[in-house]
Amino acid sequence: MPISLAVEDLSAKRGEDLIFHDISFVLEAGQALIVTGPNGSGKSTLLRVLAGLLAAETGKVQIKGAVPDIGHPRELCHYLGHHNAMKRELTVQENLSFWKSFMGDSAGGSGIGIEAATEALGLGGISHLPFGYLSAGQQRRMAMAKLLVAYRPVWILDEPTAALDAAADRLFAGLVERHLRTGGIAIAATHQPLGVAAQELRMTGFAGVGDVV
User: Fold this and answer.
1) Which of 36, 39, 74, 194 has most Cβ atoms within 10 angstroms of its Cβ?
2) Domain carrying residue 93
3) Count of structural domains within the chain
């Protein structure tokens, strides 16, 4: 059954300050949302609330159409933040094995193998290297492989293409497009075009209301 992500009257604080309020939108399977706005406008805070990492001040986030009905999407989402969340001392293989085991697969799909995931990111044959040996761009691409080794229908991405060159940008856009074609949902905060058709949520910050266009 296709899922949808429904956000209703969402607000959140940074410290004691209300950073945004009354944000509402619905994303159906196969749809993407780009979150834009100046630095400090609440983009990262919004994504962390959507991922269940921060509590909302008001409002709710729901997944509809999931079996069983899980309510909040935290069990069905991948979150890729500013940090890669990979241990520098461990090999790429060891890092991705941990995430594949820790995350597991949501109902409705299955992740791909580690070597297949690294190949998909254009970095096949180096998964035996310690993560810390890789360049910043390679590290970011390997962090993206987490999205592939464990299946989650909702991708929540904070500046996903930071440190990537133009070729890697296009490669990542292709991964997102395939995710959407198979019924996934993607939400990305970015200052750069993501390369996929998407709605846009413009954040204004400090109790401003974002507009979905």
Assistant:
1) 194
2) 4-212
3) 1
